[in-house]
Specification:
Blueprint (H helix, E strand, L loop, with lengths): L2 E6 H15 L3 E4 L2 H5 L3 H9 L6 E4 L2 H9 L5 E4 L8 H6 L2 E5 L2 H9 L6 E4 L14 H7 L7 E5 L12 H20 L4 E3 L3 H6 L7 E4 L10 H10 L10 E6 L2 E5 L4 E2 L5 E2 L4 E6 L17 E4 L2 E6 L7 E4 L11 E8 L2 E3 L1 H7 L4 H6 L7 E4 L2
Parallel strand pairs: 1-20, 2-9, 3-4, 4-5, 5-6, 6-7, 7-8
Antiparallel strand pairs: 1-10, 10-18, 11-14, 12-13, 14-17, 15-16, 15-18, 16-17, 18-19
The structure holds pyridoxal-5'-phosphate.
Pyridoxal-5'-phosphate binds next to helix 9 and strand 9.
GO molecular function: alanine racemase activity; pyridoxal phosphate binding
Cofactor: pyridoxal 5'-phosphate
Pfam family, one: Ala_racemase_N
Amino acid sequence: MRCWIELSRKALIENYRIFERVSSPSELMPVIKSNAYGHGLKEVYAALCSVVAPTWLGVNYVEEAEELRSFGYQGSILVVGPVPQSLYEQAARARADIFIGDLFSLETWLQLPLKPKIHIKIDTGMSRQGFEPEMLPKILETLKPFKSDIVGLASHFANVEDVVELSYAHKQLERFEQGRKALDTAGLHIKTHIASSASTLLLEQAHFNITRVGISMFGLWPSQATRLSYLQTHDKLENLKPVLSWLTEVALTKTVREGDCIGYGCTYKAMKDMTIAVLPVGYYEGYPRIASGRGSYVLIKGKRCPIVGRICMNMMMVDISHLSKVQTGDRVTLIGSDGSETIDAETLGAWAETIHYEVLTCLNPRIPRKVLDD
Ligand SMILES: *Cc1c(COP(=O)(O)O)cnc(C)c1O
C-alpha cells in the first residue's frame, strides 16, 4: 500500500500514565479491541508493553486474546464482545476471561469441563449484554460451587459520551450498586467494573476496581460533550496525545482546465484552471467516501488541500492550485499534523458524518504501521 500509519510510542505511554493516575487505585485495563482501534494490535501491544506492564488488556475476540498470548503477554485478558459458546474452551486455553450475561450462555458454561473465568455482566440500562440486576441473587446461588471461576461483576454505560447531563449514568450507577449489594449478600468478593473512557474521566464514583479505557488510551476524547463536561468540573483538560498519524504520498500531479470534470459522476467541475494531486488512498484503505465535498482536506507542505470530486476506491484528488512545486512522492497527511495545521480523527469523522471511533477502526488492517519512539 502507498499509505502508512505512524504511531507515537511516547504519546501512548503518556496517555497510559494519565489513566494510571486518574484511575488509581483501580486497576487500568487498556481496551485494544478492533485492531487496537485501528492502530494495529501487534504494534500497539509492542509499543505499550515494551515500557509498561498492564495488569489487564481488553479485546473483543477470543482470537485477539490468543494473539496477545502469542506475543508473550502474561497478564489478565477480558474478551468484552459476545463469545460463541463453541469458543468457550478456546478462551479457557488462552486464559481469557469472558462475560456471561444471559441464562443460555450460563447453562452451557456450567456444564463445561474446561471453563474460562467469567465476569458476570449485568444490564443497567444499555439493553445489550447482561442479566437484569434483579436476577443476580439467584444466579449467584447457582454459581456458588464455581466461586473460584468468577472474577468480576461488570456493566456498561449507555449515555455518557453523548451528553453533558449525566442523569442517565447516575441511574445506571444505582442499578449497578444493586448488583454490588447482591455480591455482598452472597459473600462474594470479586472485582466490579463499569467505566470506559468517558466515565473514567467524568465519574470518579464509577471507577470501582477496574477502568476499561479504549479511545482515550489512543489520545482522543470520547466526544466534545465529554470535553465540555470535563471542563465544567476541572480547571483544565488532561493532556491526551493522539497516537496515530495517517500518511500517504502524492502519486501524480496534473493540470485541469476550466470546465473540466473531476472524478466519478462529474460531481466537481473546475471553475478555473487548477492543479490537482492524485493520492493513492480511497475508501478501500479506509478514507470514508462520504467525506468528499464537505469541507474535507488533506495537508501537503503544511497547507490545506481540499478534496475535489468523489473519493474513489483507491484514489482521491485534491486541489493544489495554491501550492507550487508539489511533486510525485511528496508527503501527504490524512490524519495528523503538518506544520501548524492538524487534522484529527474527530474532524475526519465529522466530515464523514460519523465518529472518530468508526474512522479509526475502518483503517484497513493491511496498511503498514510503524512505531516511532517519540
Ligand atoms: C469498547 C469498550 C470499552 C472502551 O470504550 P471507550 O469508550 O473506547 O473507552 C469499555 N468497555 C466495553 C465493554 C467496551 O466494549
